[in-house]
Amino acid sequence: MATKLHNLSEYDFNSVPDAAGMRFGIVVSEWNHTITGPLLEGAHQTLLKHGVRESDILVKTVPGSFELVFGASQMIRSGRVDAVIAIGCVIRGDTPHFDYICEGTTEGLARLNATGEVPVIYGLLTCNTLQQAQDRAGGSLGNKGDECAVTAIKMVDDKRTL
Ligand code: DLZ
Predict the structure, then answer these.
(1) What is residue 62's three-state secondary structure?
(2) Which residue's C-alpha comes closest to atom 9 of ligand 1?
(3) pLDDT class for 4, splitting at 50, 70, 90?
(4) Has 50 been annotated as catalytic?
(5) 8 pLDDT exceeds 70?
(6) What is the predicted pLDDT for the residue at 6?
(7) Residue in 23, 9, 122 with CA at minimum distance from that of residue 75
(8) How do the residues of the chain divide into helix, strand and coil, expressed in percent and rounded to 5?
(9) How far is CA 122 from CA 68, 101, 111, 130, 157, in A?
């Protein structure tokens, strides 16, 4: 896809609704924490920048990306969040494991999105190399966490205005 043509952290600040009063959950994978840490930080800071209160951001860690679906589902069931951002990073290895984790996680998050009341934002990096992940976690292509936070705010606003 064309992330190379688009910096993940660049957006029109004024096009993002005021997020004061909105509540967000961030579920983040411990696997590849050198990548998911900066993604979490990006999402967190961007939410604050748009008026979200610190106390309205709930952060939970899960062991790996495959567990993001369950983590997001639990956050939704808690009734404490208006949107969930799921953050993970899968890096291709020598076996087909990569494909199964990517597929299972993506399918699970999509299912939550389609059937639920709460939007789930897709912050899963699926990379062939560590360098590709670093480029998207605050490196040369920006930070996917920033993009996810902006998307989450827009989705909560959309839901309120629809
Ligand atoms: C097992 C595994 C592997 C090999 N690679 C990754 C990865 O690159 N990124 C990631 O988030 N998780 C990985 N995992 C862990 C799985 O997501 C999951 O936690 C385990 O299979 C247990 O369900």
Answers:
(1) strand
(2) 90
(3) low
(4) no
(5) yes
(6) 85
(7) 23
(8) 50, 20, 30
(9) 10, 14, 12, 19, 17
| Cα dihedral value 97, 89, 110, 6, nearest 10 | -130
List 6, 44, 50, 97, catalytic entry: 97
H/E stretch holding 133: helix 130-135
Rounded to the nearest 5 degrees, what angle is found at the Cα of 21, between the Cα atoms of 53 and 16? 90
Q: How far is the CA of 27 from the centre of ligand 1 (A)?
A: 15
- C-alpha angle 37-81-50 in degrees, rounded to nearest 5: 65
Q: What does the mean pLDDT of the chain come to?
A: 96
Centroid of ligand 1 to alpha carbon of 81 (angstroms) = 26
For the stretch 47-106, pLDDT in tens is 999 999 999 999 999 999 999 999 999 999 999 999 999 999 999 998 999 999 999 999
Q: How far apart are CA 122 and CA 111, in angstroms?
A: 12
Ligand 1 pocket by Cβ (under 6 Å): 29, 31-32, 63-67, 88-91, 93, 97, 101
What tens digit of pLDDT does each residue of 123-141 get?
999 999 999 999 999 999 9
pTM: 0.96
Q: Which one-letter amino acid corresponds to residue 18?
A: D
**Mutual orientation of helices 68-78 and 97-115 as an angle, nearest 10°?**
20
